[in-house]
Amino acid sequence: MIIFFILLIFCLLLFKLTNIISYNVLKKKILLRQKWDLNICCGKTDGGGVNADIIKHKEVKNFVLLNDITSLPFADDQFGTVLSSHTIEHVDDPKSFFSELNRIGRSVHIVLPPLWDITAAFNIFEHKWLFFTLKKEHKKLPFFIRLPGANWIQKKIGQRIHA
Fold it and tell me: Is-contact 138 109, C-beta < 8 A?
């Protein structure tokens, strides 16, 4: 029984560590790598250009409040570089959102939870989609499926984060 609890604690610590590496180290490294002309990313980070989200979580420079992420209020090819970090896994239609990002930006980068970040990739309380990738950053939309159980859970208790 003690071995079971030791393994359980080890797994929980490992899951927490992978989540810290994914969100606090790799995401921050991508965000700080360059100035992003448009940053669609949870309304809490400054990408250096225009920062946009459907909710204003805190004061961020050049913030644009969005009403509909499938019809963004920007012109075709308005931005050179677009960063969408940890957003696409929350949306109703990832393909439409990705198409809209490519309409307004010449170089689109999607950052999402890789499968090795189990606590984020399989978060049925917040995410709608599971992306089959081991990488953090993408220029093309990886294969994805509806996250098993997410619809049921989110109908019962609501989605904690909306995009």
Answer: yes
